[in-house]
Amino acid sequence: MVHPKQKTGSSSVYYFTLDVLETDCHVLSKKRWKDCTARHLHEAVYGRCKAIFYINLPKRILYLPAYNCTVRPVSRKKIVRMCPDCPTPIRINSLDPGVSQAVSQSLEKVNKEIAVGKKFYLFQVTQAFSQWVFGPAYFVEYLVTEAPCSKSLPGSETCLQPPADSKPVGLCRGSLSKMNQDKHVSGTCKFFQTQPPSATGSHPPEHQDPPQLALPTPAAPLQEGPRGSVQLLPELVDENNEGGQENKSFMAFPGRIDLTVEPLGEVLHLPSRFMLEKEEMPTVLPFPEGLGSDGCPGPAENSNPLILPP
């Protein structure tokens, strides 16, 4: 939903309400959401976001001053009713031995088959699922760091441990399934870009930002960055409890944006790097409620009722 824009001179402030669905791309991949695929329903995390966006075309400014998102996983009980055999999520801090084995063995496969001149190490497990398919099966997703390796002698290779402040370089997915004495291990990785793509890079032209607009650098000081948060709620309980009464114990979507509570609004102080004059500073109003502009809300990209906010 897009609320009517607030225009001041050559700049505009937009107020968005967005229903969102998690994709299979990690945020560090820097990929556009349109280039990513929505997760399977049993993995899905969905919710709603509010965002305030500022645009100034003559100054070449696109800026997100504030956002707030509230998300939750799809109800496991409803998934089980629809698909009793679908993989079941495991808490990643549960110390499940099947999860640790799946991570270590899939990472070993990645290092053996993918890594050339380097070695990948586990940074963090992000998701884990279990399933019974002729035996126990585990599916894991995890971030990895890397360390360089050197060959001191022919046929020998020495790899250093990554430093304590090393950053993740890729998102890997793996699985471990067992049936009797046989086991199957898989491991694949998608690595993050280390530099923004150039105009002649691997992305096709239609995936590049419009040349007349310059996105703000993410290296701005913390006090000048966007104000926002993402809140993860527990899965939604069934609408009807054992007594047939509607359960209202869950928190509804969405969160709030509190840039101002003044009815007439306040000046939106943008980062100093935009070099706006005092009279050019836009005014931001309290986030509007109710219906937005014509055509909003539009049709949902995925109309499954299990992933539409209540």
Helix-strand layout with pairing:
Blueprint: E1 2-8, E2 11-21, E3 45-56, E4 61-73, H1 76-82, E5 88-89, H2 97-113, E6 118-132, E7 136-150, E8 158-159, E9 170-179, E10 182-191, E11 227-232, E12 266-267, E13 283-284
Short description:
This protein has two helices and 13 strands; from the N terminus they run ββββαβαββββββββ. With about 300 residues, the protein is mostly beta strands.
Question: What do you see in this structure?
Answer:
- 8% of the residues lie in helices and 35% in strands.
- It has helices spanning 76-82, 97-113; strands at 2-8, 11-21, 45-56, 61-73, 88-89, 118-132, 136-150, 158-159, 170-179, 182-191, 227-232, 266-267, 283-284.
- A hairpin with a 7-residue loop joins β7 and β8 (158-159).
- The longest helix has 17 residues, at 97-113.
- The model is unreliable at 195-223 and 241-251 (pLDDT under 50).
